[in-house]
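ugh finaly. both done.
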Amino acid sequence: MLINNSAGKLISCLLLTAAFFFPLVSGSYMLGVLSLVVIYLILSLGLNVVIGFCGLLALGFAAFYGIGAYVTALLNPLIALPVLLAAVVIGTALFGFISGAPVLRLRGDYLAIVTLGFGEITRLFMKNMDWLTNGPKGISLSPPVFLGLNLSDKRTVYYCALSCVSICVFFLYRLQDSKIGRAWAAIREDEVAAASSGINITKMKILAFLIGSVMAGLAGFFFAVNQSFVDPNSFGFDESVLIVCMVVVGGIGSIPGVIVGTSMLVLLPEILRTFLGGFEPYRMLLYGVLLVSMMLFRPQGILPEAGRKAELIPDTEEIKNDEDSNVYGERNR
């Protein structure tokens, strides 16, 4: 099912409204799972800007997630909550610019390899710089309290993160419909044609990378506050792959698709854990089989975007097949 922009906005609004009421009828365990869903939503929406809107294949996105979490853990005892959020945004934007500016002239596989290397360098830095990050032992933190807002309450963290998701969705829809969004779409479809039409390719790529990295940093902030602990193992390559899977399964470039894909990939293991019972050792095997099946039978994603060119199942192939069959029939006659 392809969805247009208006239908996508309606679906996104309905999903976020439903997410507002879920904690009211769930227990503490389910609240913890739902908190992970909204944190991953911020992450996957940020990566969707990079991969879906601009067409940049980034495989080290968990690095910005970790930077946001560690900035939160290190500065939390020193500064108030608004300044802490500003530090997270500025810190991840700075790292996004430093990592993005030199490498965004690359394309495709080369860009993926370089961003993968940046992600691994960041993880090793967190793991080995004991004097700053406390190494593999990690850092514990007390969630901040500001003007009566107590972030040690899991329900409060959930609703704050959900509010952040809602703001991000509104912002991304507005951005997608703007000149910047159209420039990103042009770069994604044909970078050479976009450059020849006067689009500043490097500037637009860096902007996409900055927005994505800031959103990943905000996800890291909520992760650190929700867990009250951060360590390097939470931000490895497998985390980056999981975020990419969320975007691809939902539908690259589709905001409601990313919401559905993220929710499915976070909730599905817990659902399997609940209903499989004695088959617990095979839970992740079944999880992998479902992902492979999804890529085989629905490669465009659960809710693909109508405005995005159908690269995996192009209409031109169907037209070409019809033309070939017509030509073949005429020759036989």
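ok and the 2nd:
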Amino acid sequence: MKKWLIGICTLLLIVIGAVVWSQSASADGKDKTSETVEVTLGTLVDKALATGEIMPRHEIEVKSKISGTVSRLFVEAGDRVQIGDPLLEIQPNPTPLEYAQKKRVLEMRALVEKQRTFDLTRMKGLLEQGMASQADFDAAKEASERATLSRKMAEEELAILDKGKAVVAGRSVESVITSPVAGHILSLPVNVGDPIVPLSSYQPGTALLSIANMDDLLLRGTVDEIDVGKIKEGMQAEIKVGALPEETVTGILQRISLKSRKTDNTTVFDVEIGDLTASESVYLRAGYSANADVIIRKVTDVPVLPERVVVFRNDSTFVHLSGQTEDATEEQAIVLGMSDGITTEITSGLQVGDHVLEPKTREIQ
């Protein structure tokens, strides 16, 4: 009798355990479709990324046309200058051999001028006596004038070499370097006493300083070849400057290079974004690294949904809605508009305030 009761109890326990396990497994494996997402109004932006630096549109390097050493500095880095303002002074520092050569050349040309002047005076007397022709007198006059010009040239060369100043054909040549443009001094790499190599046709010369108009800045950067076909001049751009993370600078895409170039095994196109506008508290400096979002298209106050709830099948798109019963679902065909990869625009099929089921998920045990 006891064995029979024990057998029945054991059988009942097995049946109850199987039922509980089946219900538990069914509950764990059941598709969770109770969570929903509401269709709301949102803003979507299609944009292309440009990376680069904030730079002045034009930056000029100032160089000297005479050799020597820096004797005085009239400006410092960061100063604002106007056209013609003195920047620095170059003190000529010729070698003894160079000075001696220029000095002797001047003396020899002065002797030649003296001789040609004497010849001209003598030829004039012969012409008056009828012992020389007008052509002989003209030749002597030309030789005298050439000798005078040659002597003046030697004087000017010696003056520039010795004092750094001369007047050539009515034009003053000085050792004081003046500003060719208006702007700010960006860099001043030389100090008093530094030697200066002059600018000539066969050597670049020493860069004394650089000047740029900081009121005309732009972003010079690159755009990946994947995005360059989507953008065009005149598009708006929103710029994030690395040194100013809380500020947004706006600009206009002004130039797209016609030719690509390779950088880090990537094909990119150079672009320029100008007409930069920032708040009054923001001071942009040359060399700031920045990223710009070139706005290709922007829509505001449109019905949007997360793209994860959309079902793509063949050439159609659907979402799931709650059915008549708790476990039933219905498919609703929709038409999509613009997408930023995370959120998509709903152009038809749903209204703002509608609820869409989250995609079916299954927990992995």
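summary for the 2nd one i guess: The chain has four helices and 22 strands.
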